[in-house]
Amino acid sequence: MGTEQDPGGASGPAGLGDARARRRGIGTRGRVALVVIGVVAVASGAIAVVRAGHRTDVPGQSAGSVTPGTAERTAGAADEQVRDGRVRDARTVWPEAVASLPKTSADGLGYRPVTALGPTEILLTAGPSFEEPKRFDVYDMKTGRSRTLVTLVPGADGYVQGGVEVGEDYIAWYGRRPKEPRSWVDFWVVPRQGGDPIRVGEVTGELAGIDRFGVSGDHVVWSPEAGGVYRMPIGGGKPEKIPETDGLWLASWPWARNVPAASDIETGLLDANQNVLADLRTGVRQNIIPPQDATGLRCSTEWCVGRQGGGAVAVRVDGSDLRRVPWTMTEPEVYGGRFVEVYRDTTSMIYDLAAGKAGGITAPSPDGRSGSYGQGASSSPTAVFFWDAKQGDDYDVLNLAAIPARE
Predict the structure, then answer these.
(1) How is 332-379 classified by DSSP, letter by letter?
(2) Domain locations in the chain as residue ranges
(3) Is the CA virtual torsion 276, 277, 280, 284 positive or negative?
(4) E strands present in 52-159
(5) Residue 315 — left, alpha, or beta (φ > 0 → left; ψ -120 to 50 → alpha)?
(6) CATH number of 19-59+65-402, picked from 1.10.10, 2.130.10, 2.40.50, 3.30.70
(7) Where is this region: Disordered (predicted)?
(8) CA distance readout (Å), 188 to 147, 185, 259
(9) Per-residue pLDDT tens for 310-352?
């Protein structure tokens, strides 16, 4: 066990307080890099260091069904890259989706990417440390300029930033007090166009152990580690459990699934398959049948990914287009509806399941023996990945929302 420095020389961004951060080696006192057989596991918002060698942080109205079977094909474009050994960087593969982003704001605060607000804007936290942001800024990839969205209300001593999430109408976040003897969080929102922060309320005890967090048009929503999906009115009121969510965990509002975000390490359910995708707005549940011998299946509204026969597989939620995922999948999680993290040697990549394209997101070390990259710090799967640009004062940032839906 040890710590790493980020590529720019400063200590890496601190992890979030939700399950995605904890399961990847992040504690409440800052960024702790989990070193296992030459690999540092990446935390949301932090820098991953990938070393040569084996990586072990791999951790509708009618119901659709994933047809059991064994994947026999790989998408053509990626298959060509596998055969000739080429790994092209993300800027070459998706030039419209990569931009350079300063590591610090004009007034010297450190920037941490959170997720995309759309195809041209990226949400950032800005602060002297990554668990104590002073405000949220928005970076425009086209103009190269940032603007302040909201200035945060300072918390009491020991108060740290928890999860951040972007909804259709609001941006939401929560804070924690790790030094308190009981679990405690308070919820905040701000309209997407900016304004004054709105304190929604607080919860304690079991409800404050947040697995994943989100926001709807009129509620903050979350799942505690024990399961179920809860909500609290933005206008004020008590928390309540959303009906018929026993045995479900929030995936990304309005979607819920029958496995928690923390299932891989904390619950010991590394091989558990997701077989339910529920729309909490309509109450419609979609049943998913995992491919034969698949384990660890996780689904977006479009694609599922899991492991099968020592490799990774992907299949559409309706059961069509079963295929192998090339290279090695970092974890069974789908980003932006159709993207997964994969890696080869010291290079991590984003792979587009629909188009069969992959782009590198890794800044190599000077000696070429390792590489590093970061992942946006949203509670649900992020839409941004970042790595050191050639000029040391900037990050290169990949915005998945800027990649065309059809290529």
Answers:
(1) S--BTTTEEEEEETTEEEEEETTTTEEEE--EEPTTSSEEEEEE--BS
(2) 19-59+65-402
(3) negative
(4) 98-102, 110-116, 121-127, 135-140, 145-151
(5) beta
(6) 2.130.10
(7) 1-20, 56-89
(8) 20, 10, 26
(9) 899 999 998 899 999 999 999 899 999 999 999 999 999 999 9
